[in-house]
Amino acid sequence: MADSAQSTDTLHRRGLMFILSSPSGAGKTTISRMLLDADDELNLSVSATTRPMRPGEVDGVHYHFVDEAEFDRMVADDEFYEWAHVFDHRYGTPKAHIRGGLKDGRDFLFDIDWQGTQQLYQKDQQDVVRVFILPPSLEELRRRLVTRSQDAEDVIERRIQNAKGEIAHCDMFDYVFVNDDFDRSYAELAHIYHAERSKRRRNLWVAHYRDALLNEVV
């Protein structure tokens, strides 16, 4: 019975869009990399952006780096799930292979802000899981931004002010936790991800498998 069910592709699961959002410097990049490294079934959704490439970044891996004209074209051709202005630059999530991947049972990790999260959720509520990471304090957030040495002081100040706006919208997310310990935060995030993967509505094989069990002659 079980072999027959599997051979007819009843053990099928619909993928999910796992959104991880936080103020810049709250640690979501580190935690998301840990989750991606630990699970081969989770794929990073690569955003398009108009911001300049930073040292060590690779086009098509970290972002799809495009100019303003190309971004305008993509907006006009409705190629984005969502897009937004962030710190004088634009970021967008290309639809491309996401939709097909979800049908094939692949999961995608999104690193987007609350505005992008809202747009994506409005378009596809059933596939979206929203997680927000809070910093222990704004003082600690500032320390992390200074330590990573990527931005000038005036940019850091803008990021701190923007963080308050991000934090104000954390109640629109499904899950919220404080990243005061990386190992504990990673464990919590992994638990959320695997619990969401196991929800019955995403496991399309359940109904077929149930019927096969009920029809089994013993």
Please render the helix and strand layout as text.
Elements: H1 2-7, E1 17-21, H2 28-38, E2 42-44, E3 48-49, E4 64-65, H3 68-76, E5 80-86, E6 89-94, H4 98-103, E7 107-111, H5 114-123, E8 128-134, H6 138-148, H7 153-167, E9 175-178, H8 182-197, H9 205-214
Parallel strand pairs: 1-7, 1-8, 2-7, 3-4, 8-9
Antiparallel strand pairs: 3-6, 5-6
Helix pairs in contact: 2-8, 6-7
Q: Care to give the gist of this entry?
A:
This protein is α/β, with parallel strands linked by helices. The protein is about 45% helix and about 20% strand. A hairpin with a 2-residue loop joins strand 5 (about 80-85) and strand 6.
Describe the structure.
Helix content is 43%, strand content 19%. Helix 2 (28-38) packs across helix 8 (182-197) and helix 6 runs antiparallel to helix 7 (153-167). Mean pLDDT is 88; it is low at 4-10. It has 218 residues and is an alpha/beta fold. The chain has one domain (2-214): P-loop containing nucleotide triphosphate hydrolases (Rossmann fold, 3-Layer(aba) Sandwich). The strands form two sheets. Strands 2-7-1-8-9 form a five-stranded parallel β-sheet, sandwiched between helices. Strands 4-3-6-5 form a four-stranded mixed β-sheet. The chain is globular. It has helices at 2-7, 28-38, 68-76, 98-103, 114-123, 138-148, 153-167, 182-197, 205-214, and strands at residues 17-21, 42-44, 48-49, 64-65, 80-86, 89-94, 107-111, 128-134, 175-178. A hairpin with a 2-residue loop joins strand 5 and strand 6 (89-94). It is built from nine helices and nine strands.
